[in-house]
Amino acid sequence: MKLIRRSEWGARRPLGRPPIDPKALRGLAIHYSAMDADEQRDHARCAGRVQGIQRYHMDENGWVDLAYNWVTCLHGYVFEGRGSAVRSAANGTKHANDRYLAVCFLGNDTPARDDVTHKGRHALADVIAEFRRRYPKARELKPHSHFFATLCPGDELRAFIRAQLAKDRKEQP
Prior knowledge:
With about 170 residues, the chain is α/β, with parallel strands linked by helices. Helices cover about 35% and strands about 15% of the residues. The chain has five helices and six strands. The chain has helices spanning about 5-10, 45-60, 95-100, 115-135, 155-170; strands at about 1-5, 25-30, 70, 75-80, 100-105, 140-145. β3 and β4 form a beta hairpin. The radius of gyration is 15 Å and the shape is globular.
């Protein structure tokens, strides 16, 4: 996994680190930022977009940090957000935030265009694998729209989730 730590992307210090109860975890929720501006040709600009999301979450929403546990980009990198032991604020309901961590793809879902990219899907798969390594009983993958009425994470990432779940079924004995 090409992990970019908080210090490397210029994260602000969180105002709190609400813990997640590992026994309550059911899985991972997948989001997208839904911004064409997040689809940077130059990977060097992705960190600034993650900083912008963190700034919005903290300054406008009043949250203690970036809402996501991880953020991925189309270049195949994973930005450390809240991390694996901290409760998410991204899933839309208390119930969902208590039971699912969150990963956000930095980009949009434009029809007839591969927004996520091969490298972006690989980064998401890396997050899923690491999450499942840490929490082997929390196998579920859900789109953000499963918890909250939204278009997030778009059709392309919903297809990715379905493909991952089909792969899981094939791998089970």
